[in-house]
Write a structure and sequence with these properties.
Blueprint: E1 12-15, E2 18-21, H1 33-51, H2 56-69, E3 79-81, E4 84-89, E5 98-102, E6 110-114, H3 115-118, E7 124-130, E8 136-143, E9 150-155, E10 161-164, E11 169-176, E12 182-188, E13 199-205, E14 224-228, E15 234-239, E16 245-251, E17 259-260, E18 269-274, E19 277-282, E20 290-295, E21 306-309, E22 315-322, E23 325-332, E24 335-342, E25 347-350, E26 358-360, E27 366-368, E28 376-377, E29 381-387, E30 394-399, E31 405-409, E32 418-426, E33 432-440, E34 451-454, E35 461-463, H4 471-476, E36 480-484, H5 494-498, H6 506-521, E37 530-535, H7 537-548, E38 555-559, H8 572-582, H9 591-597, E39 611-617, H10 625-638, E40 645-650, H11 660-678
Parallel strand pairs: 34-36, 34-37, 37-38, 38-39, 39-40
Antiparallel strand pairs: 1-2, 3-4, 4-5, 5-6, 7-8, 8-9, 9-10, 11-12, 12-13, 14-15, 15-16, 16-17, 18-19, 19-20, 20-21, 22-23, 23-24, 24-25, 26-29, 27-35, 28-29, 29-30, 30-31, 32-33, 33-36
Helix pairs in contact: 1-11, 2-11
Length: 686
């Protein structure tokens, strides 16, 4: 296949005491016309290859129908503030979200903000936070996925603008005072786009000029989120998205003064303010979590803490305060459970779920254990999203008083004729690693089948059962979908995460190889019928798989990845997000570990690489497109195989956060690439 030429230019770098060649470093520069021209040519080559597949239009129609069947436009869990409910959705025929309010959870709904009307043609993303009484709306709005949001406040009934931006960059993370007189927010206090991020906590009083001076707290992490008790007497500043803890505490019923609260950075303390206590899921003393009550006047002495729920086999994902009850989220062998407790930790009930599946506050089978709860609470009820491999996401309202569960949103579509099963593989160090298989019940398993492995394995994120959606077209055509639960993720508690991060990151990759080899040994598939796909951290996973074990795969889909781990420090947001999970290339202790698997540096000339599709967002600040550009150029020059090595850079896109039609096209294109390479063709249901 003929690729647009990318000249290798001699370049030497030294990072962390390691000297290495970097012949495609010139492709890092976004503003250069030569780079832009090369990228456009790559994009056109990839688009024409994927769209040139004779079955592309048929697959595109199937993907569009599957997306509409699952009602994905409306799958935002509604939240109650005061007497009002709020939700977001993408209306039929529109590209961007609208934000709506209603007096009842079942509607009728009326418009508060319409991003379609606010946009000048660029994709917009909103972070809304209504005031406790539902009268005001603070929201941060970001254009084109750049993650440079502008913070605004409006009156919901009149639309009057009360705040039209603040001096700081990347403002968000709003926490209102109960009387709605003001709010805390987080922001970055430097205007230099290449300078290290410095997060600050600020307080804005409604009706006054935006603040210029931050609160007197030294935030020890790139992530922080203020939280205020429902009675308004206490505020905590939760730091760290991987091991959350209420690092600072302030009493607000008087002149407030911040003081250190729970500063243990080795464990998770993810909880809620309840009276004069902080009730939290913690991994201190329990690797899968236990529930404790921490008095606000003696945080440093665990002897003063009260254990409400001891640790066990279940992974505790978080706790929500609902009136005078606690709602506890759990994972039992990657299946969700939601229990209701009194304030002393005694069980009073369990939320009935439609079946074995996953519950999360975003109606998808993903829970970021550091920051995301499984349910959203209000005064006497919870709302949550539920899904499984075969049931489309549905948003439910559950009354703790009556025990009634009501479906609010979602089509309730079920995929019939499919079976799921669990297989276990033994990784290089002897650890048993699970994988869930989904395929047609009538599939002929007597010979190897086209198989797609999906993996992530990072950042303490539990990727659980999730509706196949567009992947149903792959399965219907006779493919086997394999969902790998790799170390580095949060599916099995703290040891599972720790076993696949920092200096142990190679375990994540070894887990993937063990699963692939098990599926091959069992006759499920064969190397010439096997694909692997992942995004973000999963994009790194698949690129490592392509460079460490190129013979194992027929096709690799690598989306929104970081691929040059020795130069991640050039991007502030990417650096802040990456270093706690992978390590610091400028640290002589971390640098050799990163260099040992950094995909860009392990592209060996003369290697027969599998077919590779790289996808990146043009404006992605977390995993910038230059990573994919450099890697694509190097693999194209090195490969001896006839398989394509393609690069798509989606304009106007960031790390997610793009228009609805672009989301559907992205799903269609990468799936078409996989099916073309594995020899599958779409089938029409009879």
């Amino acid at each position: 296949m003929r690729y647009p030429g990318a000249t290798a230019r001699p370049e030497r770098n030294e990072v962390g005491g390691i000297v290495f060649d970097d012949p495609y470093q010139w492709l890092e520069e976004d503003g250069e016309e030569e780079v832009a021209a090369w990228q456009r040519a790559q994009d056109e080559l990839a688009r024409s290859y994927v769209h040139g597949w004779p079955h592309y239009d048929e697959l595109a129609a199937q993907v569009a129908a599957l997306v509409e069947q699952m009602d994905a436009r409306n799958l935002v869990v509604p939240v109650r503030y005061g007497r009002r409910w709020f939700r977001g959705r993408v209306p039929e025929g529109r590209e961007l979200m609208v934000f709506e309010t209603a007096d009842d959870v079942l509607g009728p709904w009326r418009m508060v903000l319409d991003l379609n009307e606010m946009s000048d043609g660029k994709p917009l993303r909103i972070g809304p936070q209504p005031s406790p009484d539902g009268s005001l709306l603070a929201y941060s709005i970001d254009a084109s996925g750049l993650e440079l949001p502008v913070l605004k406040v409006i009156e919901i009934d009149t639309g009057k603008v009360l705040l039209d931006g603040v001096p700081q960059r990347r403002a968000g993370g709003v926490a209102w005072l109960p009387d709605c007189s003001g709010f805390f927010y987080m922001a970055n206090d430097t205007d230099d786009p290449r300078a290290p991020l410095r997060w600050r906590l600020l307080f804005h009083r409604i009706g006054q000029p935006p603040p210029t001076e931050p609160e007197p707290v030294d935030i020890p992490h790139m992530y922080a989120l203020p939280k205020i008790s429902k009675d308004g007497r206490w505020a905590v500043l939760q730091v760290d998205h991987l091991r959350p803890r209420p690092h600072y505490l302030a009493r607000l019923d008087g002149p407030w003064e911040w003081r250190e609260f729970v500063t243990d950075a080795e464990h998770m303390y993810k909880g809620v303010l309840a009276g004069d206590s902080y009730v939290a899921v913690t991994t201190q003393g329990a690797p899968r979590g236990r529930l404790v009550r921490i008095p606000l006047d003696s945080p440093g002495d665990p002897a003063t803490w009260t254990e409400l729920v001891p640790g066990g086999d279940a992974v505790l994902t978080g706790v929500t305060l609902v009136g005078d009850r606690l709602v506890l989220g759990e994972l039992v062998d990657t299946v969700s459970r939601v229990r209701v407790l009194d304030l002393e930790g005694r069980r009073t009930g369990e939320v009935p779920l439609p079946g074995p599946g996953s519950v999360s506050s975003v109606a998808q089978g993903v829970i970021a254990l550091g920051v995301m709860d499984q349910v959203v609470g209000c005064e006497d009820a919870i709302t949550f999203g539920y899904t499984s491999y075969t049931q489309s996401p549905t948003v439910y309202h559950y009354s703790l008083e009556t025990g009634e569960r009501t479906a609010l949103q979602g089509a309730g579509h079920t995929l019939s004729g499919l079976v799921t099963s669990r297989v276990w593989a033994t990784s290089a160090d002897g650890t048993r690693v699970p994988c869930t298989l989904v395929h047609r019940a009538d599939l002929d398993r007597s010979r190897p089948r086209p198989t797609l492995i999906h993996g992530y394995g990072g950042f303490n994120i539990a990727e659980l059962a999730s509706y196949l959606g567009p992947l149903a077209a792959f399965v219907a055509a006779g493919g086997v979908y394999a969902h790998a639960h790799l170390r580095g993720g949060g599916e099995f508690g703290l040891p599972w995460w720790e076993g696949g991060r920092l200096h142990a990151k190679q375990n994540t990759f070894n887990d993937l190889y063990a699963i692939a080899e098990r599926l091959i040994a069992d006759g499920v598939t064969a190397p010439d019928r096997l694909a692997v796909q992942g995004a973000s951290n999963g994009g790194l996973l698949t690129a490592v798989a392509a460079t460490q074990r190129p013979e194992l795969w027929r096709a690799v889909v690598c989306q929104a990845p970081k691929l040059d781990l020795m130069r991640v420090a050039r991007d502030p947001l990417g650096t802040a997000a990456t270093l706690p999970e992978y390590g610091d290339p400028n640290d002589p202790a971390d640098a050799p570990v990163l260099m040992a698997y950094s995909p860009y540096h392990h592209v060996r000339p003369g290697t027969a690489f599998p077919a590779i599709l790289l996808e990146a967002g043009e404006n992605d600040p977390r995993c910038p497109a230059w990573h994919s550009r450099k890697f694509a150029a190097r693999v194209q020059a090195a490969t001896t195989a006839e398989h394509p090595v393609l690069l798509r850079v989606w304009s106007g896109a960031g790390h997610g956060g793009t228009s609805w039609s672009t989301v559907v096209r992205q799903q269609t294109d990468w799936l078409a690439f996989v099916m073309r390479e594995l020899g599958l063709t779409p089938v029409t249901e009879q």
